[in-house]
Write a structure and sequence with these properties.
Number of helices: 9
Number of strands: 0
Largest sheet: none
Strand content: under 5%
Shape: globular
Length: about 170
């Protein structure tokens, strides 16, 4: 059984005894958040809250995406609250599943891609890369989103270079 006061290395290891247990090959970013919470606090009381930071990021990203789309501030705030108060998001706040965290990172990657397209600066490019990396580390389907976002950035950057709005050197550095 699990004793919150003592966690042996065997309890933290992946179980490879079942060859086709797909849960063993999923990326583990969100699960690592739960694990670090347990290790640092010495309790599993907050383990199910591992998605809270991701959901808060999702709220901010929903607001940002709405603003990028041209919505007024009040409308964007309403969109962010609708995201937060969606029943499935509220349910995922209480369990250590990865779906809400993954959705938040997909939305964050999209937001940062749009911000980079509007203002092609290195800071947006670095944050986009970080968001894509976290997204891929949450769920294996993040790889497909990463390919789409990366191709979109490359195509847009190349278009910028061809229209002399950015040099190829600047694109490469970003």
């Amino acid at each position: 059984g699990y004793d919150p006061d003592y966690v042996s290395p065997d309890q933290l290891a992946l179980d490879f005894s079942i060859a086709y247990n797909w849960a063993n090959v999923y990326p583990l970013n969100t699960e690592l958040s739960a694990l670090w919470t347990m290790v640092l606090t010495g309790s599993d009381l907050l383990a199910d809250a591992a998605q809270v930071p991701y959901v808060l990021l999702g709220v901010l990203t929903t607001f940002g995406l709405s603003r990028v789309g041209g919505a007024r501030q009040a409308t964007s705030a309403l969109a962010a609250m609708v995201f937060l108060l969606t029943p499935m998001i509220l349910i995922h706040l209480q369990v250590a599943y990865v779906d809400a965290a993954f959705a938040a990172m997909v939305a964050t990657s999209l937001y940062l891609l749009l911000k980079w397209q509007k203002h092609p600066q290195t800071n947006y490019a670095l944050l986009l890369g970080l968001a894509i990396g976290l997204m891929m580390g949450i769920k294996s389907t993040g790889l497909a989103f990463a390919v789409v976002f990366s191709l979109a950035a490359i195509v847009y950057g190349t278009w910028q270079c061809r229209h002399r709005k950015m040099s190829y050197r600047e694109l490469y550095l970003q």
